[in-house]
């Protein structure tokens, strides 16, 4: 019999961002204990039952020690590891400085290596890791070369690591398209309706819709899905 | 589990629903209180699953490669239920053989059942699906749709074709409130693969060796992936082929 969700623990980096918060809400509703790791706590109110299962821990993706502290805060066993911390810098390629490039790669890619590396000894035998890649990691993104490279890098990491996790541990990714959240506001404002016109579903996605897919990957329903990258883009990528 | 989000659907139509993956989908949906109509060959293998489902189960004999028969069967479902909002195209057969001597009838049968059958069912389902306003199609591809495999040319081509069809319908029918996705299973323990293994046409050991999860899937695991895509949990997912293969197609093992 599978371990029940109320006995499980999830670590969500970027847990105070829009997607991270949506993931935390969804997992808490299933009874999962959630450790949210982020630079600063967001102001929010959780239902009483959920508040007991929720904790926040300070997490700095640019601090190598921070990953170890974060997994220690989770306790002995981690069942779900959702790595949603990331930044979305916009800069034409010619103007990306060495520092900006390194910073983006460190936060979006190297920090994921550090988190998984630190979590390995604590991963449950059927643990599920979910990386948050992006449509930019598949198609590229004009004016976001460093971001796109970091998100594509996550997929290479996933496809290699899947052979080394062992047991029934799984690693997968999601690649959101354009989600209606603060991170994409500048892009949406600059794009006018051009993105919506090439999105078959005719709308932006929501953080809850991304969380719903992550929640599926962090469930026994996805028990044979390993090394997969699920696009959540309303058909944008297809068109 | 994503099924917490399952809205009560008008009903699901499942082609090839009497055995294997289609049957697992039918059982899971019936178990969750949904209505299920199964289209399958009138005298094919497998058994019906609908006992104790209080009129929520329909079974119609139908060859999916026969466009008129599919239209008639789906019209019957539409009449009986007043509509349906999920279509799962899982009818499939196997006719492996060396390409240099593959008989025309084997090639045509494979393409007709898998690719044309999927198209005819989608086409016949369009009126009901578009009327529902929030419908989902899930087609069955296969890891064979993405990998080269000896003696499987017709199957590979038909499955790759299904992924192309899936992307086109996703884009074309999104404005009609229809999402269209596919699941590409790896190797699954079904009567289909067991028969191939018994006939000496499928060696399970090297496949398990090349699968990071080191096993075949259970039909129920593939059904869960299909039902996820059919559910509101996948409301912004369309045109995607979800690979459920235990990691088989990523295949980094050749390296070390």
From TrEMBL, chain A:
InterPro entries: KR_dom, NAD(P)-bd_dom_sf, Sc_DH/Rdtase_CS, SDR_fam. Pfam families: adh_short_C2. GO terms for molecular function: oxidoreductase activity, acting on the CH-OH group of donors, NAD or NADP as acceptor. Keywords: Oxidoreductase. Residues 8-182 form the Ketoreductase domain. Signal peptide: none annotated. Belongs to the short-chain dehydrogenases/reductases (SDR) family. PANTHER family: 3-OXOACYL-[ACYL-CARRIER-PROTEIN] REDUCTASE, SHORT-CHAIN DEHYDROGENASES/REDUCTASES FAMILY MEMBER. This is SDR family oxidoreductase. It comes from Arthrobacter mobilis.
Automatic annotation (TrEMBL), chain B:
The keyword Signal does not apply. Keywords: Oxidoreductase. InterPro entries: KR_dom, NAD(P)-bd_dom_sf, Sc_DH/Rdtase_CS, SDR_fam. GO terms for biological process: fatty acid elongation. Residues 11-180 form the Ketoreductase domain. GO terms for molecular function: oxidoreductase activity, acting on the CH-OH group of donors, NAD or NADP as acceptor. PANTHER family: OXIDOREDUCTASE, SHORT-CHAIN DEHYDROGENASES/REDUCTASES FAMILY MEMBER. This is SDR family oxidoreductase.
